[in-house]
Specification:
7% strand; four-stranded mixed β-sheet
Amino acid sequence: MRLCLIGQQIVANLCGSQNPLGQTIRIKNLPFVVIGVLERKGQSLDGRDQDDVVLIPITAAQTKLFGTAFPGTVRFIITQARSDALMDDAEADLTQLLRARHRLTEGAENDFTIRNLTAIAETAALSARAMGVMLGAIASVSLLVGGIGIMNIMLVSVTERTREIGIRMAIGARRRDILLQFLLEAMLLCVIGGLIGALLGVGGAWLVSALAGMTVVVTGGSMALSFLFAAGIGMFFGFYPARQAALLKPVEALRHE
């Protein structure tokens, strides 16, 4: 009996909602019985879907599917160290083991190649950090421009509502009440803008996910952080217009036309 393990994508494509265990699939018209399902892994560093995979015994692969000019040999082996700190020791042990198995004399060159994927992972992490820094810089410029726009809008609002401010002060409003009023208005503008931006961002991400088949994860924590940041931008850039409104003198504000 030929046995196999299948990934989550194979389960979705071939079995749907049915239990895949015990089912028979065909590879090059040869039947294989599914005895297990692999955990979901997502994409690898080189972009391959690690869930779109079928694992079968090496002997069945060599004799029944692929064939080889050198029976009993393999083209490559993937190994995993227990931790990142042991990668160099594992590489040295593998080199020593393979040289012994290949009966290489001392001083002879290796007839095999060992690749440490840590360097590839570090390169990918560096690229991700660089992309994060670039996106952060773009977001910072956007926030700065938006904050200046909020400040200008609030300054215009203070100018147009000077008489209203004077009336409020005349009937008992304190300076901190005026300050709080305009701060809340600035925060509200930023939060509404943040809500519209969040809806557009989530909608765009889901659209890309549907069209490109990519997985998009939107967490509640990131949404809450974005709204808090928007409120903070409103407070920071709205403080100057609010302070200008609070410092108005009631008599001069009432005379304003």
